[in-house]
Amino acid sequence: MLAKHPVDVMLTATDLAAVKEFYGDRVGLDVLVENDDFVTFGCGGDSRLVVTRTSTPSGEQQTKASWRGTDVAAEVADLRARSVEVVEYDEPGLRTVDGVADIGFALTAWFVDPGGNTIGLLEFKDKGWA
Fold first, then answer.
1. CA 14 vs CA 90, 101, 112, 114: distances in Å
2. Burial of 116 (C-beta count, 10 Å sphere; 0-12/13-18/19+)
3. Over 90: is that where the pLDDT of 85 sits?
4. How far apart are CA 130 and CA 121, in angstroms?
5. Which candidate, 95, 91, 90, places its Cα nearest to that of 107?
6. Residue 86 gets which letter from DSSP?
7. How confident is the model at residue 130 (pLDDT cuts 50, 70, 90)?
């Protein structure tokens, strides 16, 4: 049954006002619901991004969520134009060029939100995977 229902991504942050400004004004998402404990943003289709208040900021560096798209380089350019810092990597096994990494099966990029959550962008090379 669950395969027929949308799923929401749940992240945490200590400062919901900063999250609202970041995802609303800079990333360009619409705020659907907000209160003192969480902010919910609308994303593509029927997906939503929910950020809840926490007293402990995220220290984990792995990707928490990824947007799938058809042109990661254009998305990176748009994010940078909106003052979102796209992470650059230059380490063994992971190197970005102008913010975009080729990871074999996909092109990808990352940014970190005010809650310390690493968020990805993903463009599958095999368009049948998207």
1. 29, 30, 14, 8
2. middle
3. yes
4. 12
5. 95
6. B
7. low
Cα distance between residue 1 and residue 46, in whole Å: 17
Beta strand 94-97 pairing with 90-91: antiparallel
Q: How far is residue 80's CA from residue 83's CA, in Å, rounded to a whole number?
A: 5
Task: Show the tokens assigned to 126.
Answer: 């095999």
pLDDT single digits (tens) 13-58: 999 999 999 999 999 999 999 999 999 999 998 999 999 999 987 7
pTM of the model: 0.91
DSSP 8-state secondary structure symbol assigned to residue 127: G
Q: What is the DSSP string of 18-84?
A: HHIIIIIIIS-PEEEEE-SSEEEEE-STT-EEEEEE-SS-----SEEEEEE-S-HHHHHHHHHHTTP
- Which residues neighbour 110 within 8 Å (Cβ) at sequence distance 6 or greater? 63, 86, 87, 89, 118, 119, 120, 121
| AA letter at 74 | A
Segment holding 91, helix H or strand E: strand 90-91
State the Cα–Cα distance between residues 24 and 10, nearest whole angstrom. 16
